[in-house]
Specification:
CATH class: Alpha Beta
Distance between the termini: 32 Å
CATH architecture: 3-Layer(aba) Sandwich
CATH superfamily: NAD(P)-binding Rossmann-like Domain
Number of strands: 7
Largest sheet: 7 strands, parallel
Bound molecules: NADP nicotinamide-adenine-dinucleotide phosphate
Order of helices and strands: EHEHEHEHEHEHE
Strand content: 15-25%
CATH topology: Rossmann fold
Helix content: 40-55%
Strand order of the largest sheet: 3-2-1-4-5-6-7
Number of domains: 1
Length: about 240
């Protein structure tokens, strides 16, 4: 296991849901955190009691590429290193093969947030992750990136791509100690699933349980690579 002390972790979409749960867990475990959000003031008020020495808050909007490089630069300026990148920010919009109208804009938005921004951040951070010698990348994909149900296609396409990105990252960084995991949860109790009716919130995965898994995975030695982590609240592997 790797000691959390002095390890620097970047988390996108850290202001709510899974991202905030991961931030809380890793802060309590002693990591230094570079937290990114579209709404800095909200995040600042949520974590106002956390030690400023160990925390950096930066604006990151997946749609605005200048914020990608700016976030990485500010992280290096404050901490001088990056050990882990957690690509968590994501969106879901309805795009089905049965749609009569072409909703390409919704599809483009999902590609930009769920795939292109994680790729961009991976490229920007890889030189620092390589230097770490034990760099870690977690891409919060989904079980929708492992199997397709019904005719909903847009979100699944982007999450399959996020899984592909994870495998390419693991191969690309392997020789320098970079390990990458595609975290693939089923329904998680966050704002994203607040309108889901097929399953109750109480029966969904807790963001805190996912956060605990993330802490464990990024703390494993280089010789214990977890390529994919499938987490479900139902009996099936991916359904
Ligand atoms: N909830 C589930 O059932 C579930 C299951 C499998 C996978 N996931 C994945 O888990 C990740 C986190 O989702 P969640 O459940 O925590 O959802 P959430 O509560 O809706 O949070 C989504 C996060 O992504 C951020 N975000 C959205 N668009 C962004 C953009 N353009 N630039 C930067 N940040 C942006 C949001 O920021 P704002 O607050 O500014 O909107 C928010 O912090 C996503 O990748 C999602 O696809 C979720």
């Amino acid at each position: 296991m790797i000691n959390s002390n002095g390890r620097v972790v970047m988390i996108s979409g850290a202001n709510r849901g899974i991202g905030l749960a991961i931030a809380r867990n890793l802060y309590q475990a002693g990591f230094s955190l570079s937290l990114a959000s579209r709404k800095i003031s909200t995040l600042e008020s949520i974590i106002k009691d956390w030690s400023s020495e160990k925390i950096l808050i930066t604006k990151f909007d997946a749609m605005d590429k200048s914020t990608h490089s700016d976030w990485v630069k500010k992280t290096i300026d404050k901490f001088g290193k990056i050990d882990c990148l957690i690509n968590n920010a994501g969106i879901v919009e309805s795009v089905s093969v049965n749609d009569e109208e072409d909703n390409e804009e919704a599809l483009d938005r999902m590609w930009a947030v769920n795939v292109k921004a994680p790729l961009s951040l991976t490229r920007l951070t890889l030189p620092f992750l390589r230097k770490s010698g034990a760099g870690r990348v977690i891409n919060v994909a989904s079980l929708a990136g492992k199997a397709v149900y019904g005719s909903s296609v847009g979100y699944s396409m982007t999450k399959f791509a996020a899984v592909a990105l994870s495998h390419a990252t693991r191969h690309g960084g392997w020789d320098d100690g970079v390990r990458c995991t595609a975290l693939c949860p089923g329904y998680v109790a966050t704002d994203m699933t607040s309108t889901v009716e097929s399953i109750s919130t109480d029966s969904m995965i807790s963001p805190d349980d996912l956060a605990e898994l993330v802490r464990t995975v990024i703390s494993l030695s280089n010789t214990a690579s977890v390529a994919e982590l499938l987490v479900n609240c139902r009996p099936d592997i991916v359904a």
